[in-house]
Amino acid sequence: MRPPSLLRALVVRLTLVVVLALAGSYLVLYAEFRDGLMGLEGQSIAVQVQDLRGSIVPGAGPPRLELSPSLQAFYAQPDALNGYQLLRADGTVLQSGGFSASHLPLPAARGGGQIVMQRETDASSGHSIMAAALVLDDRDETHWLRVVRNLEDAESLVAQLMLGALDELFPPIALLLIAVVSVVVVTVLTSLRSLRAVSHQASRLSLHRLDERLHAKNLPRELVPLVQAVNASLDRLEADYRVQREFTANAAHELRTPLATLRARLETRFSAQQLGDVALEIDQLARLVEQLLCLARLDSQEQLQFAAFDAYAVALEAARELAPVALESEHYVTAATPDAAVPTHGNATLTRLVFRNLIENAIQYTPAGTSITLSADSGAVIIADDGPGIAAHAATTLFERFRRGPNASGPGAGLGLAIAKCIMERQGGRLLLDANSNRGARFVMEFPKPL
Asked: SS3 for 429?
């Protein structure tokens, strides 16, 4: 499952917030526009009531209206939205014209001579109706003069106006969304740039670069405590590792002299026959001490002395030095490409130790009569044998320290390949086991090109 993307989450959420804000703004504007239009409607019908009041004809009987030709034409329009009513106090309609709202109840309050506004729903049609009523008092009884207006089309007009405005605002809104998303993307990418730089620094940390620390420069304030915690952990790790490394180096260094003195004294008092396997055990212990001291130096931050040299020539020299040992155990070391050259830049002395360890391992772990072949190919030195090879389950831990093969029976502590790999990495090269070898073990040493 892929981890969640911070950029995607921010873009989606901020876009959603902008869309909701625009929708909310639209609804607020719609409500405000509707209220404003309703206020204009109320003012309009209030003016109509006053105009109709001037059309009342006084007389001995009930009041009646004589409309001017303009008012008659206004209320006689087809599909009229406006209407008037002259009513008794009990709601009986005496005279009406235009839009009919016969089921609209009279106002509960008389208004004290002022116009009373009503907002009702017609029981018969279900239409939303606004009315302005004015009480007419005479000697005999009370009458009401009322103007009504159908608001259905008015509200539809509001919606049409708002939708039309939205159509006009759609391009600016789309541009606003694009601008917001672009600003979010640029802002997040800019903020994450420093985080990517810190991640790159962290990926370069290793046992050989424990003195480096992560930089909190330009990082968001919320991430600074994390970087500081990581740096504090690196400080503790470096201190612990330095103590362990110094202990190993000091112990190996202090053991070398007593071992050499012990062997010298034993050889002066006893013959080689009397010593028997004691001398061999001392040699193995001295070799282990030397290997531990070599690892301690490689693990340290001590700068190695580098120079240009021919890696394949050094390999041939190491093979010639070990030729007597190989012949004694009935092994044969040959050079498949004797005239080849692998120029590189590094430490020739330590590189010689790499070749010695690999050739000694081939001699130790392959049966008598096995051939060990040296060759060069495309800037790499290859040491191969035609022995039983290395099992796949053992190859995964082959270069670990103090790790010996399942069939190891001779002397050794399992440090030779670990030292060889460490030397190659300190020089910028690589030591690999070729898993595609048809027979035997095939080690490939890739060297950096000379400067």
From this structure: coil
Backbone phi, psi, residue 406, to 5°: -65, -25
* pLDDT, tens only, 402-447: 666 555 555 555 677 888 888 888 888 888 888 777 788 889 999 9
Please give the C-alpha separations between residue 421 and each of 112, 138, 373, 416, in angstroms, as whole numbers: 106, 118, 20, 9
Furthest-apart CA atoms within the chain: distance in Å:
161
- 420's CB contacts (< 8 A; 6+ apart) are 353, 354, 357, 358, 431
> What is the per-residue burial (b if ≥16 Cβ within 10 Å, else e) of 300-338?
eeeeeebeebbbbebbbebbeebeeebeeeebebebeee
CB 75, CB 98: distance < 8 Å? yes
CA separation for the pair 14, 1 (Å, rounded)? 25
- Beta carbons within 8 Å of 183's beta carbon, 6+ residues apart: none
pLDDT for 17: 81
